[in-house]
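#dry-run=false #mode=assembly
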Amino acid sequence: MTEILELVDLDQLRKEVREKYREVAADPTGTYHFHTGRAHALRLGYPASPLDQLPDDACEAFAGVGNPFYWGGPKPGERVVDLGSGAGMDSFLAALWTGSKGSVIGVDMTPEMIDRSQTMSAKHGFENVEFRQGLIEELPVEDGWADVVISNGVINLCPDKIGVYREIFRILRPGGRMTVADICLERPVPEEALRDIDLWTG
Amino acid sequence: MIGGAGLVDVELANPIDTFAGAGGEESAREFGTLGYSIRATKPR
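#status=ok
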């Protein structure tokens, strides 16, 4: 992991990731190197219900890579943190599962995604969801707050993955669980590819 | 890596060809990239 951190310009990587997801926030139906939207979520195995309770505009900028709810959603009353919450679809789904006695915090580093998710939250009346701008390597969440941590397709964009997992450990209560989705590579990535920020973001 | 952070009962499941048909399919194929569901627990 130290080697990867030495190979990548972290500031430049974060800048380019923000630019990519700023585009998605502004134009969710555009063409990207990944799929977006409700149909993509269903293809990844998201449960049709409660996904069908979300309006289209709350789903159209979804850009996940797998299904963090493969083992089921959060339980009523639980506290959930969504790492790299993007446009907020997974946070909204978690809020439907937890109900009004639960709470959801979405964390994202891209201001335009925070704006979009907050707008959607207000528009559709999600009172138990809060979005905070921040890095998932330095989560703006207190120790032991969360029953569940979710994420989808974001940890792979962080060179300091062990740092992210340590943060997940820190914010989970004892006995709490992480259910995330992310990409895994079956073949080793050569050093020149690790240095290529275009490959990280596309 | 996940275990190194103190989490236990790590499980990977549900591999999916997440970039199939998308613009990133070619580079995903090059490195054998698949999407997975991953879970782990913080010990009590």
